[in-house]
Amino acid sequence: MNRKRAYFKIRHEIRRSKNVFIMGHIDLDLDAIGSCLGIYDFVRSQKKNAYIVINEKKHEAGVSKVLKMLDDISILSAKEISEDAYKNSLLIIVDTNKKRLLQDSEILSKVSKVVIMDHHDVGEDTVSCHVPLILKDASSASELVVEFLYYFGYKMQKQIASFLLAGITLDTNGFSAKTGSKTHLVACYLIECGADVKFVNTLLKQDLEDYILRQKVITDVEIIKKTIAFAKGSNRVIYKREELAKIADTLLEFDHIETSYVIGKLSDTVIGISARSVGDINVGEVMSLLGGGGDVNDAACRIEDKSLKEVETLLKKVLGDIR
User: N or C: which end of the chain has fewer CB within 10 A?
Assistant: First the structure.
């Protein structure tokens, strides 16, 4: 489905629905929450009921800052939704297309229709939907959402514009990766809408303790085949998903490094892998071999009930098979 047709279909489905639920992926980041809020703002402008579904209680620092500012936004967990609310309802999924990564996958069988707005590769776990706006050439879900809003001449409020700009800035690593001409045009439009760059920088500020933990992981980096950077977190530390991603991004800044892989404990039972690439290796395909996914430059994986050492062995075996 081409972009323009998808835009009209999405607006049509919003207008014909009584309740619109908006949901991102687990471990919300600024791109996911920014996208949710951009769609929420548009849905409300169409005189429809809008709800952002978030089951998680803990969030990374930037998302926590955003959520504390949302006094007039309807945010609820899936268990708070009544069965009647699902009648003539629409679910809009942003920043993921995988069932296992949703805040709540049980909603899929209850809503009337599903729309996806995402920039990641599809796979076996991709959700079946009525309108798939899945464009891998977009830098972020926030970029897709802004393009959609711009197409219909919708000028969002300043705070929402700032949240969307923060999402784009995060996913492009400060406009240094996955950035095309549309990314810059979208950013300009957000600034025209009143996005505050200083406020965005505040949302993106790092926690000092998290920074120190990342630096410790980077100091133990291992170079494989001269161009692959591999790093492993401490077995005694539980890392945030975004911390592993930031380490992987940082490793690509060094000479001769074309791909990076970082593994660490996300909980006592889950090991996370974050992968990045600027070379010929499609890290999305590499992660798919371990049950994860992503795209050419940006991918990840969650592996349950295995030790850090076991996951390291699995990953290195896969890397060893790559020619």
Answer: C
Q: What's the token pair of residue 153?
A: 């001449």
Place of tokens 């303790």: 209
| Secondary structure (3-state) at 114 | strand
Q: Which residues contact 311 (CB under 8 A, 6 or more apart)?
A: 263, 271, 273, 303
SS3 content of the chain, % helix, strand, coil (to 5): 45, 20, 35
Joined tokens for residue 3: 């972009």
Whole-number Å distance between alpha carbons of 227 and 152: 45
Long-range contacts of 234-237 (CB under 8 A, 24+ apart): 234/264, 235/265, 235/307, 235/308, 237/213, 237/264, 237/265
pLDDT digit string (tens) for 163-189? 999 999 999 989 988 899 999 999 999
Q: Determine contact, residues 88/18, Cβ cutoff 8 Å.
A: yes
- Taking 50 as the pLDDT cut, the residues of the chain under it are none
**Residue 123 confidence (pLDDT):** 82
Give the CA diameter of the chain: 58
Residue type for 15, please? R
Comparing CA positions, the residue from 190, 92, 120, 96 lying closest to residue 150 is: 190
Residue 149: predicted pLDDT:
97
Q: What is the pLDDT of residues 112-123, one digit of tens each?
A: 999 999 998 888
pLDDT for 133:
97
Listed as own residue / partner, the contacts of 4-11 with beta carbons closer than 8 Å and 24 or more positions apart are 4/151, 6/131, 6/132, 6/133, 7/133, 7/148, 7/151, 7/152, 9/115, 9/130, 9/131, 10/92, 10/115, 10/117, 10/131, 10/133, 10/148, 11/46, 11/152
CA distance 16 to 31: 27
Task: Report the chain's C-alpha Rg in angstroms.
Answer: 19
